[in-house]
Amino acid sequence: MDEILTKRRSPRNRAMIAGLVIVFAFYFIAIFADFLAPYDYREQTRQEPSAPMSNIRFRDDQGIWHLRPFIYAQKLADARNMRYDEEVTQKYPLTMFAHGRPYSLFGFVPSDTHLFGVESAERENPPRLHLLGTDQLGRDRFSRLLLAIRFSLLVSPAGTVLACIIGIIFGAISGYAYSNVDSVMMGIADAMISLPTLILILAARAAFPLELPPITAALLLIMIFALTGWAEMARLTRGLVLSMKQREFVIAARSIGLTERRVLCRHILPNIASPLIVQATLMLPAFLLAETALSFLGVGLQEPEPSLGNMLSLSSDLVMLKASPLILLSPGIVIFLFVFGIRLAVRNLNWGVKIL
Amino acid sequence: MILIVSAISFTLLSSAGGDALSTLRENPQVSDKTIEGLKRIYGLDRTFAERYGLWLFGAVSGDLGESFSFRIPVRTLIWSRFLNTLIMSFVAFAIAVAVSFFLSILSARYRRRFLSGFIETIVLLSASTPRMVLALLVLVITLRFSMSAPAAGEINLFQLFSGAIVLSVPLISVFLAQLRVGLADALNEDFVRLARAKGLAEWRVIALHALRAALNPFLSIAGLSFGGLLGGSVIVETVLGWPGLGALMVSAVRGRDVPLVMGVVLVASAAVWLGNTIAEVLQLVNDKRLRSDNRG
What is the pLDDT of residues A77-100, one digit of tens each? Predict the structure, then answer.
């Protein structure tokens, strides 16, 4: 490990920056999801169920090139086979900062501007631009994906923070306690780690009604993550606190009469912060996966609210999955990229923390 | 430990509003009288303590009650499913062990940069590919090439191995990382230098001496991975239609089938506990120093 660290410092830094860019890009999407999404994620359009991706064109049917990209209106030509034809009579150019569904940015800035969209002076309802097509109910998949990213990326950090707080307190107490108490506490943590977590989460979820409003579902998920995820953090904290207790500066701090709490908070915790932060960052993908797994199995966030998991569960439609796997698996690609970005960044942090 | 888990799950399952009959109750065609009768059949009219006592007494004597939705004893339902999950998990475990041992020994023997880079890439990729996505990818590939959708409940070898490969991928990442670091540390130790000085071939030095030292941390990690393996099987079995414990658990949760959920939790916890114990015993066998009582 050390050999690699010294020899190849610059590629490591580059890898770390690449990972950070991926992670921050996803959080940017999460924050500005309303602005980036062209349509309402709940709005159903009966005329276009399971529509394919819109063709963004620069060249019209007469072979003339245009500087500005445009789309044709799509019309369901064959409802049996879900085949769509394009109406080439009328072009609809794409607009930046188009006006559409009203929303409030960050929850308090009202706006109806979207990054892009289709506007038309002639028609009240111009044809819609579907970057990833629509689902069976005619909802814009791209908008749903962006909103799903927001849900998944906000729920898992909240769960992580809660689990970290519980874990650090538990671990610090255990590291400070007498050996009997310590071994009981660590026994509990070890049992917690080795348990089949997903099965327990499912069992805990079974205790609550299946249909839950989105806020309740999110809070429930956060609670469940915190209750199942704290143990690893507790184990790590306890080990680090134990090793710090032997160090001279801690003994010195204690010998000048500081209270134990002050020693712990001011002297020990700041010195073990970096491995704890690394562990916390690695818990984030685990929670993201747990959340998507629950929603995928139909016991997490419920429709019509989008989450990466319940969007993936649409791929149980095998005919669609066979026809356009990339579109149906796009939430999966998002999950992969996000987890990959976090791992890439954390693995290559030069904090002297050994990561397995 | 298993007792605590069962008590907590039972309390949670019973305390929350709604039970297996709540959907029936909303149906106007079902009279209150029917509901009361069903309640008596399922034993839901008793108090919580009575129910838990009865369940626990039954569980100790090997009777896990009757499933609400399938109407057959939970034990027969779980047993065949459990064997299926066990088979798939075992194959997955074997794949992960084989791949990670092979690659880590290879990189310890030939210390080339491209090999270590290759292994790091594998660790990173396999750690960040969710089983769910991988399982769906396998599904896409089956759809594209074999043209026959996997029928639920049907067991075939292709399904077994594709599922096992999907299950094994995150394990490979953990095992490979641990083994590689363990082997690299062990190769710097004095006993390895001694073994080399005796004139042993490098392969023997690695396989017999260094690997033995690296085995114990690996075993403890492997023991802790059983829980995750069972959790992962929930997803894989649901996607690929493998009739195992995980798929059963999902349907039990959806149907709010309390005896079945309890049974699965019990069996899964017991299996994981057994796996951990085996891993610990293997560590004792491998390293005699752990056998003394003062192991801090």
Answer: 777 777 777 777 777 777 777 777
Cα-based distances in Å from A37 to A30, A103, A301, B186: 11, 11, 20, 53
| pLDDT score, position A139 | 81
Kindly list the strands in the beta sheet with A83-105, ordered across the sheet, starting from the edge strand earlier in the chain: A57-59, A65-78, A83-105, A109-118
Q: A92 and A127 in contact (C-beta within 8 Å)?
A: yes
Which residue type does A210 have? Answer: L
- Two structure tokens written together for B21: 């009959």
Q: Tell me the C-alpha distance between A352 and A325, whole Å.
A: 41
| CB A163 within 8 Å of CB A226 | yes
Across-strand partners of A93?
A70
Residue A289 in any domain: the answer is yes
The pLDDT value recorded for residue B263 is: 81
Residues in chain A with CB shorter than 8 Å from the CB of B133 are 312, 329, 332-333, 335-336
Rounded to 10 deg, the angle between the A141-176 and A214-245 helix axes is 30
Residues A102 and A151 in one domain: no
Nearest to B267 by CA among B244, B283, B251: B244
Peptide bond connecting A304 to the previous residue in cis, omega within 30 degrees of 0: yes
Nearest to B268 among A196, A299, A335 (CB): A196
Tally of domains in chain A: 2
Model-level ipTM above the cut of 0.85: no
Same domain, A129 and A149: no
Nearest CA in chain A to B11: A207
The answer as to whether A245 is a domain residue is: yes
Q: Do residues A135 and A150 share a domain?
A: no
Average predicted confidence (pLDDT) for chain A: 78
Question: What's chain B's average pLDDT?
Answer: 76
Could you list the residue range(s) of the whole structural domain that residue A75 is in? 42-139
The answer, yes or no, to whether residue B98 has pLDDT greater than 80, is yes
Residue of A nearest to B184 (CA): A1
CATH of B75-295, one of 3.40.50.720, 1.10.1740.10, 1.10.3720.10, 3.40.50.10860: 1.10.3720.10
Q: Which of B1, B128, B273 to mutate to test the interface with A (most CBs of A within 10 A)?
A: B128
8 Å CB contact of B133 and A332:
yes
Strand segments, DSSP code E, in chain A are: 57-59, 65-78, 83-105, 109-118
DSSP B211: H
pLDDT tens-digit readout, A122-181:
666 677 777 777 777 778 888 888 888 888 888 888 889 999 999 998 988 888 877 788
What's the Cα-to-Cα distance from B278 to each of A325, B4, B143, B170, B271, rounded to whole Å? 42, 21, 39, 21, 11
Q: Determine contact, residues B210/B108, Cβ cutoff 8 Å.
A: yes
One-letter amino acid for residue B30 of the chain: V
Predicted local confidence at residue B99, as pLDDT: 92
Residue A212: which CATH number?
1.10.3720.10
**How far apart are alpha carbons A286 and A279 in whole angstroms?**
11
